[in-house]
Amino acid sequence: MTPSTTRRFVAIALFVALAWAGAASAQVNLLWYKEVRKDGRIYVFNDPNKFKAFEASGEMGVSLTRINYGPDGETVVFENETALDMYDFKHGKEAEPRDTKAPAAPKPSLPTSLRIGDGEVKLGLLAQAWYVTDDSSASTGSSYLGNTTGYNIFRLRRAEITMSGTITPSWGFGVMFDPAKGISPQTTGSDGKVLQDFWISFLGLKGHELAIGQRKIILTEEGIHSSSDLDFVERALVTKTFSDRRETGLFYKGSFGTYVDAMASLTQGTSSNVNSDTNDTLFFAGRVDVKPVRGLLVGASGGTGAVNGGAAHLGRSRIGAHVRFEGTEELPLGFRAEYMTATDEVAGKPDLKRDGWYATVLYTFARQFQLAARYDELDANKDVDGNKTKTFSGGLAYLIKGRNMNIKLDYFSIKQEGRKVNGSLDETYGQFALAFQVAF
């Protein structure tokens, strides 16, 4: 069948459908047809909206023109090729031959998983590279971003490699390594532990997961999110202090309908990659989130139990609340806020009481750029004056491909009460961070 014959059949089918549909079909773009004579020309339309625009302006815009094509030799102007084919059919003209191209073959996509038996394995990567500047005088202290105070450095912040998946529909697993942790010399405050996460999970109950292994504790909203989802290059100080920590134990998370999620964990209270033989005292944490409307999450969390195990069985407790709003297409404005209070037993001394909070506002424009502002405050000892750290953070992110590829430029203005540099009081300093991220 020639292209000309094919188009005739298409045109016949369109007109049969038009006759069958009646007046209602005039609202369907492919079946709408209109001829207008004006200034010695014939204008042919296939779209009622295009016709209305023509009536208002007298301009056709992008179109197809055929000289001497009308019944009396008029020039005919067609809105598109469909209008041309319908005109040819109506006036008994031979369809105009046109070259046709076969549709392009779909581009092959990168595999996202590998089938193994009844399950599958998925690979993930988070790579972050930083350049950090610090306007402090040189010293040996630790800064807000973890580098030695007063030094400007390039830093391979994260190189997280994750392998996760299922062996059967009911049993899953995961392990995550970060080779950047093993780089020597370490930046100040880095734990140097390459193994980060490890878990074996039961998924047999839909909407619920029970896992054993090593994961982050669930006390803060910002703390449970992947580092690839952070609004700034680094978490707020309250998050880093109270929940940016991995422990070994049992972990649960589940959904109860559309509006309520819950998490719980029972861990042995020691830091990551540390086994303890004093597990007769454990740390329990729980969390409940409510999602009253789309994009909004409100929740509370708490924990109680041992601090770092140990024969003394010193206790720790945490209570927190959080709210998170992701924004909408119509209102690309995000908001996060958290508060947490903590009490730690100290051998031979009064309990150490601390608290902190932060609030973040985000605005996304042109779907690729995000402005962010955050204020966070941590009181390292509520019973003693002069122990607060206050930080204002401002940032601009270029979201090349969302979390998968972006560039962040952040500024941190930090006031740490009682901070000394080289023996002199120096409470305020600033840091810039330029960060590149690739994740999948």
Structure summary:
The protein is 11% helix and 48% strand. It is mainly β. It starts with a helix and ends with a strand.
Structural commentary:
- The longest helix is centred in the first third of the chain and has 19 residues, at 3-21.
- The chain is elongated and about 110 Å long.
- It is built from five helices and 23 strands.
- It has 440 residues and is mainly beta.
- Helix 1 (3-21) packs across helix 3.
- A hairpin with an 8-residue loop joins strand 14 and strand 15.
- The strands form three sheets. A 16-stranded antiparallel beta barrel has the order 6-7-8-9-10-11-12-13-14-15-16-17-18-19-20-23. A four-stranded mixed sheet has the order 1-2-4-3.
- The chain has helices spanning 3-21, 48-57, 81-90, 221-224, 237-242, and strands at 34-38, 41-45, 64-66, 75-78, 114-116, 119-134, 153-168, 171-177, 195-202, 208-216, 246-256, 260-267, 283-290, 296-306, 315-325, 333-346, 349-365, 369-379, 388-401, 405-416, 420-421, 424-425, 428-439.
- It has two domains: 3-90, no CATH class; 114-439, Porin.
Helix proportion of residues, in percent?
10-25%
Order of helices and strands: HEEHEEHEEEEEEHHEEEEEEEEEEEEE
Please state roughly what percent of the residues sit in beta strands, choosing from under 5%, 5-15%, 15-25%, 25-35%, 35-45% or over 45%: over 45%
What is the β-strand count? Answer: 23
What gap, in angstroms, lies between the N and C termini?
A: 47 Å
Instruction: Please identify the top-level CATH class of the largest domain.
Output: Mainly Beta
Strands across the major sheet, in which order? 6-7-8-9-10-11-12-13-14-15-16-17-18-19-20-23
Radius of gyration: 32 Å
What class would the helix/strand composition place it in?
mainly beta
Biggest sheet overview: 16 strands, antiparallel, barrel
> Looking at the structure, what is the overall shape?
elongated
Number of helices: 5
Structural domains: how many: 2
Low-confidence stretches: 1-29
CATH architecture of the largest domain: Beta Barrel
CATH topology (level 3) name of the largest domain: Porin
Mean pLDDT: 86
CATH superfamily (homologous) name of the largest domain: Porin
